[in-house]
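[scheduler] slot 2 assigned
[scheduler] job type: sequence-to-structure, two independent chains
[scheduler] chain ordering preserved from manifest
[runner] begin chain α
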Amino acid sequence: MKNISVAVKIAGCAAGLLVLAAVFFFGWLSLNEYRPSATEAVPVKGNAPARVPFEKPLELYSWNIGYAALDAAQDFILDGGSGVRPSSRGFVENNTWAIQSFLASRAADFVFLQEVDVNSRRSYGIDQADYFAGSWRGTSAFALNYFCKFVPYPFPRFLGRIESGLLTLNTFYAGTQAERIALPSPFGWPVRTAQLKRCLLVERLPIADSDRELVLINLHMEAYDSGEGRAAQMRILADFLNAEYAKGNYCVAGGDFNANFPGAEDNFPLVDTDHFMPGTIEPDSAGGVWAADSAVPSARLLDRPYNGDREDNQFYVIDGFLVSPNVRVDSVRTIDLDFKNSDHNPVKLTFTLPQDGADTAN
């Protein structure tokens, strides 16, 4: 009887210590939670003196690079796989180099990159933002959308430290500051402390011989919520775009919307409903013009490594653009890299700014 009493006391003490440790840990996470302001200035680095022209085709590439760690050989635990990060730093270095080489081979005027790490365990601490900006022929702006000193899942192979965000590369004059506009988070405490703090990265570019602006909006919308968070974030984007359009400005928003573009499910139906489920974009939902290539998948499900089999994998078209009605979309094309270096393919938009500012027949 005495031995049982001692065992109960030991078990109680152990349980108490575990509770105390949990309280301490989540308190530490709360004290160190990234809490960005509603709007923040973001420095524009580099130099590009030329102004954006009217009536000239411009090229913009958008690419969620998956922190250069989600190449074809990888899967990911939150998508139904088992992976947390590549088995060696070499995978990330190779992917980072390949992504930069692709960008260098293109005559892009602008590049929107998402999931760009600067100091994360999952990408072995490589500063990808600095690497891409350092080889770019213009300016760069970077906005954090994920900063947590220790992400405590998945157990027991934790993600650990994550510092990541959006990177916009630009060949035209953009002043000295861009703007980070916070988007609402659907998560409550304590989950919120280790989740993304999503945002819009906005650059305002003066147009030559005009008082109007080209407003560039780099984004990455909510992924793993019930859909309400993504919807709230989309409303903010739509309101922002429409307000700028009402001023006479030209707006191009692009990135990973985590929602299938119109027509996507006709070509890539949802056959896996147990893991990541994208939303669906309604064509008339934002007051602008949606632009995506529904013939080529822009993203894959990371439930398994990718072997090139297009019949045995789940694909999506969740990367693309929303432009104001006065922007003429000349073409949009997903570049099929077969997910070699990221779980997303880059998407190329060619667009023109009509000088009369009238709505275009997209």
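[runner] end chain α
[runner] begin chain β
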Amino acid sequence: MQLGRDFLRALNQITRERGLSTELIASSLEAALISAYKKYQGGNQEVEVHIDFESGNVSVSELRNVVKKVESEDTEITVAGAKKLGYKGLAVGDVLRIEKNPEDFGRIAAQTARQVIIQRLKDAERQVIYDEFAGRVGEMMTGVVFKSENNQVLIRLNERTEGILPREERITGEKYNPGDRMKFFVLDVRQTTRGPRIVVSRTHPGLLRKLLELEVPEIADGVIEVKNIVREGGARAKVALMTLDSNVDPVGACVGNGGVRIKSVSRELAGEKVDVVIWNGDPLLYIRNSLSPARVAKVEPVLDQERSVQVYVYPDQLSLAIGKAGQNVRLSARLTGWKIDINALEVERMPTLSDIFHDFVEEKAE
């Protein structure tokens, strides 16, 4: 039986181009041809297939165990039965290989081989994609939106790879129009029966970290360390920084001249406001810094509650400390890992001239 030399030449070319091993193709083809032969014959035979990739010859053999008494005609034969078929010198316990070349099976074999090759190519491409992206989890990539309909947003990451942007990983209110180029965080890569499933994010703190590394050389070089990041995607974020270099101002370096660096990051995140604060090993100082841009009067730990503080601000700073819908204090609590309760500090008012005059009049009246 022949697969055909043209088919084999094409097969060898494909395996070279796609990096598939001949052994992998051979084992896959042989397994597929065994299955096809069994269906063709309609029995439960033990079958052996061998493919010669030089000549294109395919040999199919049915295996029979030589026994005293046959219980399964598909898999067993007696010594006498083997002699009738022309096989001599066999004994009980031997294995007889009967070469088969049924009519029309050559066509079936060729069709099966083509199907196996197509499937193996798909599997190989999927594995290549998986291997490439599995190592890129946690990285930032530029992608192009190519489908945004029926609540499904798909991102073209390269010529042959698509990523999924789930609803929970999208910035609220951000538009994803086909053709839009933007940056994404590779969140997860999983192998599925339909190929690799690559999930990307626009709201993950890792995306903000990568953008800062891109815009701020001091962060990329390790002079400034990003200790923590919390985000409410598209609305507001807080970044805690530290440095061991006394000559470097972490906040100033991150913001840039005229705010150019932080504005560039903000534009990439749909205008998300980014607060940059100084990390401190003293939790009370860290909490004070985290509530920026509000100015804090004092921070007191709540002694009977673990990781809980009372923060006092002057009345004119109260709304700023709390933030719109509690956003500032909420992000500060997430950034520091402490429960924060904001209170207005009552200011002891100094007496005015009016007060002094009023007291003087009352004294005279007495």
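[runner] end chain β
[qc] chain β: The first strand starts at residue 46 and ends at 51.
[scheduler] slot 2 released
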